Amino acid sequence: MSWGLDNLPYGVFSRRGEAPRVGVRYGDQVLDLAAALHDEVFAAPSLNPFMARGHTAWHDTRALIQEKLSTDRSVTDAHLIPLEQVRLHLPFEVADYVDFYCSLDHASNIGRIFRPDAEPLLPNWRHLPVGYHGRAGTVVVSGTPIRRPSGQLRAGVFGPSTKLDIEAELGFVVGVPSELGSPAGAFEEHVFGVTLVNDWSARDIQSFEYVPLGPFLGKSFATSISPWITPLEALPRIPGRPQEPEPLGHLRRQGDWGLDITVEVWLNGEIVSRPPYPSMYWTPDQMLAHLTSNGASLRTGDLFASGTISGPQREERGSLIELSWNGGDPIKLASGETRTFLEDGDTVTLRATAAGRSLGEVVGTVR
Ligand SMILES: O=C(O)/C=C/C(=O)CC(=O)CC(=O)O
Ligand SMILES: [Ca+2]
Ligand SMILES: [Mg+2]
Fold first, then answer.
1. Is 106 among the residues known to form the active site?
2. Whose CA is nearest to atom 12 of ligand 1?
3. What is the CATH number of domain 97-365?
4. Per the database entry, which stretches of residues form a coiled coil (predicted)?
5. Alpha helix positions (H), 224-310
6. What residue spans define the domains of the chain?
7. Ligand nearest to the CA of 217
C-alpha cells in the first residue's frame, strides 16, 4: 500500500476554522498527532519543533505511531481525519534553501545547451557537488499557483519569461542544527526526511544573468514542495554509483545513501518523463558534508535539494529544457499538442515512489 505503516510521512494540516497542526498520513487519512499522542510539539503549525528533537525521538515516535495505528482502535477511530476534510500547508518553516547539481546526465545536458563550444562538464564537477543558495522565503506548498516571472531576457529586454521550465528534484530537510565552525556529523543525525521538489526555472532569465555568480532571479521566484515529508527510515537505501576520481576524504560516502526512488513528471495529465534517482552521481551525505565543510552551520528547517534528476535516456530527463533540447525538438503530447516550455494554464505534477511507498505529489499551475 502506498500510504501504509511502512510509509507514514509527516505534514501540517487544518480543518476549516481550526489552527494548522502536525499530522501523519495513513491511507487517505491524516492522523491528528497532538490529539493521538498527547504531545504539544505536534500542536505547532510546522514540523520544526518536532524535527529539532533529533534522531532518537524521530525513531521512537514513528514506532509509537506504527504501534497505535496497528493495535489501538480508539486512536484510529477518534483521530484519523479523511484527507478531503483538510487543507495541507507548507510542512515546515524553511530556514535556508540550497540547491545542488548532482545529476551527471542533467549537468552534461545543460552544459551542452548553455555552453555548446566547451566541455559539457565544467572542470570542478567531479570533484565536489556544485550548488548555490536559493531563496527560502519563496518555497511554497504543492497547489500554490505559479506566476510567470518577468526579468531581463537578454540585453535591453525586460518582460515575461518565454522559457518557463520545471526541475524535478528531491529535497532533504534538516532537523538537527550543527555548530558554527565545525562540519556536520553523521547524515542521519541531522537529516529528518525527504520531500519532492519542483524548482521552477526561467531559462531565458537564467542564461543571461548567471555569469559569473550563478542562478539568481531565474530561480528565486518560486520552488514548490510536497506537503509530505517522508522520514529517512521509510526510504529504501541502495549503494551510490561509482565515482571517478575518488572524492577527497571529507567527501567520502558515509554508507549507502543512494535512494531507490522513481519520479514521474506529468504535464497536463500525461506522463512526459520518469527521472530515476539511482542515476544521481553525488549522494545526499556528500551534499551535507560539502555544505558544512567550511564550518557553515545548519539550522532546523534547512532544505537542500539534489538538483534536477535526469537519467541517461531522453524519457528520463527532469526538465523541459532537456526534453525539448532548449525548444529545438518540441515534446509531442498525446493530446496532439506540442510543448517546448510552459504555457499559461499548464499544470505540472511531480509524483514519486520508493519501493511502492508514495512520496506524494507536487502540483503547480502557471498563471
Ligand atoms: O550549468 C548551469 O549553468 C546551470 C544549471 C542549473 O540550472 C542549476 C540548477 O538549478 C541545478 C539543478 O537543478 O540541477
Ligand atoms: Ca534546480
Ligand atoms: Mg526555484
1. yes
2. 307
3. 3.90.850.10
4. none
5. 284-292
6. 10-89, 97-365
7. 3
